[in-house]
Amino acid sequence: MKWSRFLINAIRVKTLLLLLIVSLTIKNSYAQDFQFSNDRKKDAISFLLLKNLVVIPIYINEKGPFNFILDTGVGPMIISDPHIADSLNIKDLRTIKISGLGKGDEIEAYVSSAVNARIGKSRLNHIPTAILKEDLFRLSSYLGMPIHGILGYHFFKSFIVELKYSSKRMIFYVPSYGRKIKGERIPLEMINDKPYAKVQVESPELGTLTLKMLVDNGASHAISLETLNKDPFPLPPVTIQANLGVGLGGPISGHIGRIPLFKIGSFELKNVLTAYPKYEEVAAKVFVNDRNGNLGADILNRFDITFDYADNAMYLRKNGNFKRPFQHDMAGMEVYSEDTQLQRYFIGRIEPGSPAEEGGLLAEDEIVYLNFAPSTSYTLSDLNKIFRDGNHKTVIITVLRKGDLLIRIIKLKQRI
How confident is residue 249, by pLDDT bands cut at 50, 70 and 90? Predict the structure, then answer.
């Protein structure tokens, strides 16, 4: 499937996951908490941070490790890479159908409770699991390394979980461990196994608004504003049109703009990059009526966060990323990896009127040199950082197009 026909980004992923989780009901009589063996009460592991997303190693049915995104926005564990499913010898599979967005066809997935998962020294046997028959998310291409699935609620509800974005370290422990939680307490409301928090946004057009947002560290954007008073969220005066991803029924389109002031607790962030998906493509499909939008990882990773689901709270402490400016892609193109081992990079989408379009780049071009250095000397994270930073900088890109090597020069530009 061509990448231009199947873009991956946070909004698309979260929309698909919402439909999956709503459609999926897995009931069993087994315990559904991760637990330590013997008298252990605490553990810690390192994680990778890719495009603001937390990637942790998980062992499934004593095989692995597999790379999973740790995501507060999902319920059952999701195995998104169907290639690993056969090797796991998963039994008691049932097939369910998942309705798509728009006019898309239904897709099928397996569900099972005969799956055992281990994270560090903790284990959960019979974890409710969905196994996709097709790699719909293409997370490996999006993040530039093999990604096998997504895990959320069952881990977060089992422990008090500290995500130290500053040191890429996760500490998790049982409440009886007695560790003092540091940071400012932010109340959470749990709805359908997902955490929601109240935030404030301010703008000259809207004044001060208190909004209910899904706390979603598995969405790489800063915030997505979807509804206000059950109507589409008003756009700010200055936006750019953007393809925000693809759902099962087709593209999710919308706009990107900025909110002048964002507040959570006593913390304030200015000039926050904000996505505004089209109402009928996202918000109309959401089943929480008073939800206004989605609070993503480009805000959350500016804190070291402790999640305490049992106490309906999270605790925030500013880290070194707090004052980092919010930046949009200044080239105006998506870059993905078709082969994460060989580090081959392709252009998947070109924004209209962007530097990439003006420079003559096309979707499906393969990037082979960047500033005359071979693309294999870069990671996907390196490339994304180059294209997100450096307003007015010139970048020389050599691409392979239908067997021909072409040199294109683009001047990065902050378009919003």
Answer: very low
Both structure tokens of 54: 């937390």
Structure-token pair, residue 258? 């900025």
Instruction: Give strand pairing partners of 405.
Output: 400
CB neighbour class for 153 (10 Å; exposed up to 12, middle 13-18, buried from 19) = buried
Which of 70, 71, 29, 14 is closest to 46 using CA atoms? Answer: 70
CA–CA separation, 147 and 10 (whole Å): 15
Residues 6 or more apart in contact with residue 196 via CB below 8 angstroms:
188, 189, 190, 212, 213, 214, 215, 288, 291
Single-letter code of the amino acid located at 381: S
Contact 243, 7 (CB under 8 A): yes
Which amino acid type is present at position 330?
M
With beta carbons less than 8 A apart as the criterion, state whether 115 and 77 touch: yes
Are 52 and 220 in contact by the 8 Å Cβ rule? The answer is: yes
CA 26 from chain centre, in angstroms, equals 24
Q: Which amino acid, one-letter code, is at 414?
A: Q
* 51, 119 contact by CB (below 8 A): no
**344-377 confidence digits (pLDDT tens):** 999 988 888 899 999 999 999 999 999 999 999 9
Go through the chain and tell me how many residues it has: 416
65: preceding bond cis by omega (within 30 degrees)? yes
